[in-house]
Amino acid sequence: MSGPHLRDFNRIVFFTGAGMSAESGVPTYRGAGGIWKEYDYRRYACQDAFNRDPAAVWEFHNYRRRLVAACAPNLGHRIIARAGQREARVTVVTQNIDGLHALSGSRDILELHGNLWRVRCDTCGVKQQDSHEPREQLRCDGCGGWWRPDIVWFGDFLDDATLHSAKQLISSCDLFVSVGTSAVVYPAAQLPEYARAGKALRVEINPDETPASDLYDVHLRGPATEMLTRLADGDPHLLDPA
Ligand SMILES: [Zn+2]
Protein backbone atom coordinates (compact mmCIF):
# COMPACT_ATOMS: atom_id res chain seq x y z
CA MET A 1 0.00 0.00 0.00
CA SER A 2 1.50 3.28 -1.01
CA GLY A 3 0.20 6.68 -0.04
CA PRO A 4 -0.34 9.66 -2.33
CA HIS A 5 2.64 10.58 -4.46
CA LEU A 6 3.72 13.92 -5.91
CA ARG A 7 2.60 12.71 -9.33
CA ASP A 8 -0.97 12.34 -8.05
CA PHE A 9 -1.32 16.12 -7.78
CA ASN A 10 -2.06 18.50 -10.63
CA ARG A 11 -1.01 21.82 -9.20
CA ILE A 12 1.68 21.93 -6.59
CA VAL A 13 3.01 24.95 -4.74
CA PHE A 14 6.22 24.78 -2.76
CA PHE A 15 6.34 27.65 -0.29
CA THR A 16 9.92 28.07 0.87
CA GLY A 17 11.80 30.05 3.47
CA ALA A 18 15.18 30.30 5.13
CA GLY A 19 15.19 26.61 6.16
CA MET A 20 15.19 25.66 2.45
CA SER A 21 18.57 27.31 1.94
CA ALA A 22 20.04 26.54 5.36
CA GLU A 23 21.53 23.26 4.12
CA SER A 24 23.26 25.23 1.35
CA GLY A 25 24.95 27.34 4.00
CA VAL A 26 23.10 30.55 3.16
CA PRO A 27 23.28 32.83 6.19
CA THR A 28 19.93 33.79 7.66
CA TYR A 29 18.64 37.12 8.89
CA ARG A 30 17.22 35.72 12.07
CA GLY A 31 18.04 33.02 14.55
CA ALA A 32 21.32 31.40 15.45
CA GLY A 33 24.15 32.53 13.22
CA GLY A 34 21.98 35.24 11.67
CA ILE A 35 24.10 37.88 10.00
CA TRP A 36 22.41 40.59 12.02
CA LYS A 37 24.62 39.62 14.90
CA GLU A 38 27.50 41.19 13.01
CA TYR A 39 25.57 43.97 11.33
CA ASP A 40 22.86 46.13 12.82
CA TYR A 41 20.20 45.67 10.11
CA ARG A 42 18.67 49.07 10.86
CA ARG A 43 21.83 50.57 9.52
CA TYR A 44 21.97 48.51 6.35
CA ALA A 45 18.65 47.02 5.24
CA CYS A 46 15.99 49.68 5.13
CA GLN A 47 15.14 52.56 2.85
CA ASP A 48 16.06 55.16 5.48
CA ALA A 49 19.56 53.77 5.72
CA PHE A 50 19.85 53.78 1.95
CA ASN A 51 18.67 57.38 1.74
CA ARG A 52 21.28 58.36 4.32
CA ASP A 53 24.25 56.40 3.02
CA PRO A 54 23.72 54.28 -0.11
CA ALA A 55 27.40 53.36 -0.39
CA ALA A 56 27.43 51.84 3.11
CA VAL A 57 24.26 49.88 2.33
CA TRP A 58 25.94 48.57 -0.83
CA GLU A 59 29.03 47.56 1.11
CA PHE A 60 26.82 45.39 3.30
CA HIS A 61 24.88 43.90 0.35
CA ASN A 62 28.04 43.15 -1.58
CA TYR A 63 29.23 41.31 1.53
CA ARG A 64 25.99 39.33 1.44
CA ARG A 65 26.46 38.69 -2.28
CA ARG A 66 29.90 37.22 -1.64
CA LEU A 67 28.53 34.92 1.10
CA VAL A 68 25.64 33.70 -1.07
CA ALA A 69 27.75 33.35 -4.22
CA ALA A 70 29.73 30.68 -2.37
CA CYS A 71 26.55 28.61 -1.82
CA ALA A 72 25.16 26.00 -4.22
CA PRO A 73 21.62 24.59 -4.50
CA ASN A 74 21.08 21.53 -2.31
CA LEU A 75 19.29 18.25 -2.98
CA GLY A 76 16.01 19.80 -1.85
CA HIS A 77 16.23 22.54 -4.49
CA ARG A 78 16.98 19.89 -7.11
CA ILE A 79 14.04 17.69 -6.07
CA ILE A 80 11.68 20.66 -6.43
CA ALA A 81 13.19 21.56 -9.81
CA ARG A 82 12.77 17.98 -11.04
CA ALA A 83 9.13 17.96 -9.93
CA GLY A 84 8.62 21.08 -12.03
CA GLN A 85 10.12 19.43 -15.08
CA ARG A 86 7.37 16.81 -15.06
CA GLU A 87 3.92 17.52 -16.43
CA ALA A 88 2.36 18.74 -13.22
CA ARG A 89 2.30 22.46 -12.84
CA VAL A 90 4.69 23.27 -10.03
CA THR A 91 5.26 26.77 -8.72
CA VAL A 92 7.80 27.85 -6.16
CA VAL A 93 6.69 30.73 -3.96
CA THR A 94 9.73 31.75 -2.00
CA GLN A 95 10.70 34.23 0.66
CA ASN A 96 14.35 33.63 -0.17
CA ILE A 97 16.33 36.18 -2.15
CA ASP A 98 19.34 33.96 -2.86
CA GLY A 99 18.26 32.79 -6.34
CA LEU A 100 19.05 29.13 -5.58
CA HIS A 101 15.72 27.82 -6.90
CA ALA A 102 16.45 29.32 -10.33
CA LEU A 103 20.03 28.06 -10.20
CA SER A 104 18.79 24.50 -9.58
CA GLY A 105 16.51 24.63 -12.63
CA SER A 106 13.11 25.63 -11.30
CA ARG A 107 11.37 27.81 -13.86
CA ASP A 108 8.12 28.94 -12.28
CA ILE A 109 9.21 31.02 -9.28
CA LEU A 110 7.57 33.85 -7.42
CA GLU A 111 10.08 35.69 -5.28
CA LEU A 112 8.06 37.49 -2.62
CA HIS A 113 11.05 39.33 -1.20
CA GLY A 114 12.88 40.04 -4.45
CA ASN A 115 16.29 38.88 -5.59
CA LEU A 116 19.73 39.70 -4.27
CA TRP A 117 21.11 39.53 -7.83
CA ARG A 118 18.73 42.11 -9.28
CA VAL A 119 18.92 45.88 -8.86
CA ARG A 120 16.43 48.64 -9.49
CA CYS A 121 17.04 52.34 -9.87
CA ASP A 122 15.88 54.19 -6.78
CA THR A 123 15.00 57.18 -8.98
CA CYS A 124 13.55 55.93 -12.30
CA GLY A 125 12.62 52.37 -11.23
CA VAL A 126 14.31 50.52 -14.10
CA LYS A 127 15.55 47.02 -13.18
CA GLN A 128 18.67 45.10 -14.14
CA GLN A 129 19.69 41.47 -13.55
CA ASP A 130 23.26 40.96 -12.36
CA SER A 131 25.59 37.99 -12.51
CA HIS A 132 26.60 36.46 -9.16
CA GLU A 133 29.23 39.10 -8.44
CA PRO A 134 29.48 42.06 -6.10
CA ARG A 135 28.12 45.21 -7.76
CA GLU A 136 30.61 47.88 -8.64
CA GLN A 137 28.61 50.34 -10.73
CA LEU A 138 26.26 51.97 -8.18
CA ARG A 139 24.64 54.59 -10.41
CA CYS A 140 21.89 54.05 -12.98
CA ASP A 141 23.21 54.42 -16.56
CA GLY A 142 20.00 56.12 -17.64
CA CYS A 143 19.27 58.76 -15.02
CA GLY A 144 22.27 58.77 -12.68
CA GLY A 145 20.17 57.72 -9.68
CA TRP A 146 21.41 55.09 -7.22
CA TRP A 147 20.87 51.41 -7.92
CA ARG A 148 19.48 49.61 -4.92
CA PRO A 149 19.14 45.85 -4.41
CA ASP A 150 15.70 44.81 -5.71
CA ILE A 151 14.80 43.13 -2.46
CA VAL A 152 12.18 43.81 0.18
CA TRP A 153 13.85 45.57 3.07
CA PHE A 154 12.49 45.97 6.57
CA GLY A 155 9.58 48.38 6.27
CA ASP A 156 9.17 47.90 2.48
CA PHE A 157 5.96 46.65 0.90
CA LEU A 158 5.86 43.45 -1.13
CA ASP A 159 5.29 43.77 -4.86
CA ASP A 160 1.49 43.76 -5.38
CA ALA A 161 1.47 41.77 -8.60
CA THR A 162 3.76 39.06 -7.19
CA LEU A 163 1.67 38.73 -4.05
CA HIS A 164 -1.55 38.60 -6.07
CA SER A 165 -0.19 35.82 -8.31
CA ALA A 166 0.96 33.88 -5.25
CA LYS A 167 -2.48 34.08 -3.65
CA GLN A 168 -4.19 32.93 -6.85
CA LEU A 169 -1.86 29.99 -7.36
CA ILE A 170 -2.08 28.92 -3.73
CA SER A 171 -5.87 29.16 -3.72
CA SER A 172 -6.11 26.84 -6.72
CA CYS A 173 -3.39 24.27 -5.95
CA ASP A 174 -4.18 20.78 -4.71
CA LEU A 175 -0.89 20.26 -2.85
CA PHE A 176 0.78 22.99 -0.79
CA VAL A 177 4.16 22.15 0.72
CA SER A 178 5.87 24.65 2.97
CA VAL A 179 9.58 24.11 3.45
CA GLY A 180 11.63 25.69 6.17
CA THR A 181 9.47 28.67 6.93
CA SER A 182 7.67 29.68 10.05
CA ALA A 183 5.94 32.44 8.03
CA VAL A 184 5.38 34.63 11.03
CA VAL A 185 5.84 37.86 9.08
CA TYR A 186 2.82 39.26 7.22
CA PRO A 187 1.78 39.15 4.46
CA ALA A 188 3.65 35.89 3.83
CA ALA A 189 2.03 34.51 6.98
CA GLN A 190 -1.39 34.70 5.30
CA LEU A 191 -0.47 32.50 2.37
CA PRO A 192 -1.08 29.08 4.00
CA GLU A 193 -4.59 30.34 4.79
CA TYR A 194 -5.29 30.53 1.06
CA ALA A 195 -4.27 26.90 0.65
CA ARG A 196 -6.66 25.93 3.42
CA ALA A 197 -9.51 27.91 1.89
CA GLY A 198 -8.81 26.25 -1.45
CA LYS A 199 -8.90 22.74 0.08
CA ALA A 200 -5.34 21.79 -0.89
CA LEU A 201 -3.55 19.07 1.03
CA ARG A 202 -1.16 21.07 3.20
CA VAL A 203 2.23 19.70 4.21
CA GLU A 204 4.64 21.43 6.54
CA ILE A 205 8.31 20.49 6.35
CA ASN A 206 10.17 21.94 9.30
CA PRO A 207 12.33 20.45 12.04
CA ASP A 208 10.26 22.28 14.65
CA GLU A 209 6.66 23.14 15.28
CA THR A 210 5.88 26.66 14.05
CA PRO A 211 3.18 29.21 14.85
CA ALA A 212 1.55 28.17 11.54
CA SER A 213 1.60 24.39 12.19
CA ASP A 214 -2.14 24.25 12.91
CA LEU A 215 -2.83 25.24 9.30
CA TYR A 216 -1.29 22.01 7.97
CA ASP A 217 -2.70 18.49 7.54
CA VAL A 218 0.67 16.75 7.54
CA HIS A 219 3.78 17.65 9.52
CA LEU A 220 7.15 16.32 8.38
CA ARG A 221 9.62 17.04 11.13
CA GLY A 222 13.16 17.00 9.84
CA PRO A 223 15.67 18.67 7.54
CA ALA A 224 14.33 19.90 4.19
CA THR A 225 16.52 17.65 2.04
CA GLU A 226 15.60 14.47 3.93
CA MET A 227 11.88 15.18 3.98
CA LEU A 228 11.74 16.26 0.33
CA THR A 229 13.60 13.08 -0.62
CA ARG A 230 10.98 10.98 1.15
CA LEU A 231 8.19 13.00 -0.46
CA ALA A 232 9.68 12.57 -3.94
CA ASP A 233 10.24 8.84 -3.35
CA GLY A 234 6.57 8.34 -2.50
CA ASP A 235 7.32 7.06 1.01
CA PRO A 236 4.15 5.10 1.96
CA HIS A 237 1.82 6.82 4.41
CA LEU A 238 4.05 9.91 4.50
CA LEU A 239 1.10 12.07 3.50
CA ASP A 240 -1.45 10.38 5.68
CA PRO A 241 -3.00 13.17 7.73
CA ALA A 242 -2.00 12.86 11.38
ZN1 LIG B 1 17.47 55.48 -13.23
Question: What does this molecule look like?
Answer:
The structure is a single chain. By secondary structure, the chain is of the alpha/beta class. The chain folds into 2 domains: about 5-25 and about 75-115 and about 155-235, Rossmann fold; about 35-70 and about 120-150, SIR2/SIRT2 'Small Domain', CATH 3.30.1600.10. It is built from 9 helices and 9 strands. The strands form 2 sheets. A 6-stranded parallel β-sheet has the order 3-2-1-7-8-9, sandwiched between helices. Strand 7 (about 175-180), helix 8 (about 190-195) and strand 8 form a beta-alpha-beta unit. It is elongated, with a radius of gyration of 18 Å. The model has no long low-confidence stretch (mean pLDDT about 90). Zinc ion binds near residues 126 and 143.
For this structure, what is the CATH class of the largest domain? Alpha Beta
How far apart the termini lie comes to 17 Å
Shape: elongated
What small-molecule ligands were found?
A: zinc ion
Mean pLDDT: 91
Q: What share of the residues lie within helices?
A: 25-40%
Strand order of the largest sheet: 3-2-1-7-8-9
| Total helical elements | 9
* Radius of gyration of CA atoms, rounded to a whole number: 18 Å
Following the backbone from N to C, one meets helices and strands in this order, namely EHHHHHEHEEEEHEHEEH
Largest sheet: 6 strands, parallel
- State the CATH superfamily name of the largest domain: TPP-binding domain
The fraction of residues in strands falls at 15-25%
| Count of the separate structural domains | 2
**CATH structural fold name of the largest domain:** Rossmann fold
Assembly type? single chain
Structural class: alpha/beta
**Unreliable sequence segments:** none
Active site: 113 (proton acceptor)
EC number: 2.3.1.286
Binding site for Zn(2+): 121, 124, 140, 143
Domain Deacetylase sirtuin-type: 1-241
